Amino acid sequence: MSFKNEHAEIIDWLLDGDPSVVYQTNRDLLGKSEKSLAADRKKIAGSGWGKKLLDFQDDDGKWSGGFYTPKWTSTTYTLCLLRRLGLEPKHPKAIKACKLLAENGINEGGGIGYGWPTYPRGETCVTGMTLAFFAYFQLKEKRLAEIVKYLLKEQMPDGGWNCRRHRDNTSHSSFHTTINVLEGLLQYRTSIKDDNDIQAAQEKAHEFLLQHRLYKSHRTGEIVHNTMTRFSFPPRWKYDIMRVLDYFQMANVPYDERMNDALTIVTNKMKDGKWPLQQKHSGTVFFDLEQTGKPSRINTLRALRILKKYEINMPLKILA
């Protein structure tokens, strides 16, 4: 049975959702081409969640008057969310905001920061997040290459990244920082320029995450933090296993048996073919996309595209 037929009822439910969910369902689950989905993609800015977010933009191009704060309504986090929703690249409102962030946030050396004394080089999580939407919206900014160089330089010996590396002299990478950087580097390779050095850095970071089976201590095997196994959207700057598995499928990372524990958790969260929104990260929002504890179209979409990528390689006991 084809993936489409196996999940036909749930796909119909997804196609009755927000324009961003409809667009991504057609693209990622039904395999339709970007060209055929041009009209669907335009609807993201014209109605639903995307339009609501765009309507909150200030006249000067910022959101909530701030570059990085308040969370979660600032310019940075609104652009993060618009990227995840699939707003068209080069959208004028997004480009206007990106230009402001570039003018005020790129430090000497390529790190992104807004005058924070504890992060004079720039904050690595923020730099990764920002690179992701700069590249996605295709900002014409020659310093994007400097941002990439900064991130490659900040990679730690264990393969990941940690925004507190210089502040706390830590030697172990952070799951949170690593996923933010990986998403930024992938988006740069996808939208701006492919690069062997970036690919090599990604592969080292993939191995770091896989050594931890995506959410466990490599020393004790214990779960690093229970929130990593609970699925939120948008993820903000925080790491969870659905986020990293969704990144892996986008990056076309081959199946590895060390994904199994995380894939099992994803499949076990399904109820009646749907996945819930399990948690929200505390902070101010313009509006709630979906209701916590209820079936979530966006999480169901994300889970299905993960399973579409990896389920044919998964042991049968996981699929049971």
How would you portray this structure in words?
This protein has helices spanning 3-6, 8-14, 19-29, 38-46, 48-55, 75-85, 92-105, 124-136, 144-154, 165-168, 175-191, 196-211, 241-250, 260-268, 297-310, 316-319; strands at 275-276, 295-296. It is mainly alpha-helical and 320 residues long. The protein folds into three domains: 1-46; 48-201, Glycosyltransferase (Alpha/alpha barrel); 212-320, no CATH class. Strands 1-2 form a two-stranded antiparallel sheet. Helix 8 (124-136) runs antiparallel to helix 9 (144-154) and helix 8 runs parallel beside helix 11 (175-191). The longest helix has 17 residues, at 175-191. It is globular, with a radius of gyration of 19 Å. The protein starts with a helix and ends with a helix. The model is unreliable at 313-320 (pLDDT under 50).
Instruction: Count up the domains.
Output: 3
Evaluate the radius of gyration. Answer: 19 Å
What is the name of the CATH topology of the largest domain?
Answer: Glycosyltransferase
Give the terminus-to-terminus CA distance: 16 Å
Largest sheet: number of strands, sense, barrel closure: 2 strands, antiparallel
In the CATH hierarchy, what is the architecture of the largest domain at level 2?
A: Alpha/alpha barrel
What general outline do the C-alpha atoms trace?
Answer: globular
- What would the average pLDDT be, to the nearest integer? 95
* Low-confidence runs: 313-320
What's the helix count?
16
Total number of beta strands: 2
Top-tier CATH class of the largest domain: Mainly Alpha
